[in-house]
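Sanity check record (used in CI):
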Amino acid sequence: MSVIDIFPYLFLGHLFGDYVLQTGYIAAKKSKDIKVLGIHIGLLFLSQLVFVFGEGFGIKHFLAIAMLSGIHFLIDLIKFHCKTAFCNSWKYYLIDQLFHLLSLLSVAPFFDKVVPFLPRTVVTVGAIMIFNAYFIGILSHLIARNGTYKRDYIGYFMRMVAPITYFISVWSFLIYALLCGFLIYKKRSMFNLLNYVFTIIATITLLEVML
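Expected output for DUF3307 domain-containing protein:
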């Protein structure tokens, strides 16, 4: 598989391990307790393994995932040792995730002979659903300085629906965008507005690039 073909699997593995499997306890403790950070990396490794596994998978690919997990550990270790306010800012968050993205792209060529079992379309839509729910929610929270971060499950659902509607048709996505726009207008806040704008842009851009 080409880099663009395998990337959605690596991306989903990263997002699922870095967000979905990261409990509140892990999120709070991984920057303070090296053992908790180790648990986080272990879960991330398993997540990558599950989503990339398929026909042609061998020891070379197992080691590539181990290397990717090691890189993730080093990136998180920087945050572990950083105690300045900048390391809790949205700018640092973007830089941090950019390095994770580059690490995914750096190992993607190793998987050219692997054909994962999961359908690529399902994986791509699933990855964007998680990206919208978690990444965009946290980024919007950091930019808007929306108090103490809490998991916004209604917001998760609303943002996760976006790529499904776009995949179905442009018209269903337009209806979704108009409906959400109306709800945002009724309950105006910087946090909600950022979530809305970022979700629309990310959904269109990522689906057009990865599908």
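Residues 119-211 form one domain. If this sentence no longer matches the regenerated tokens, the check is flagged for review.
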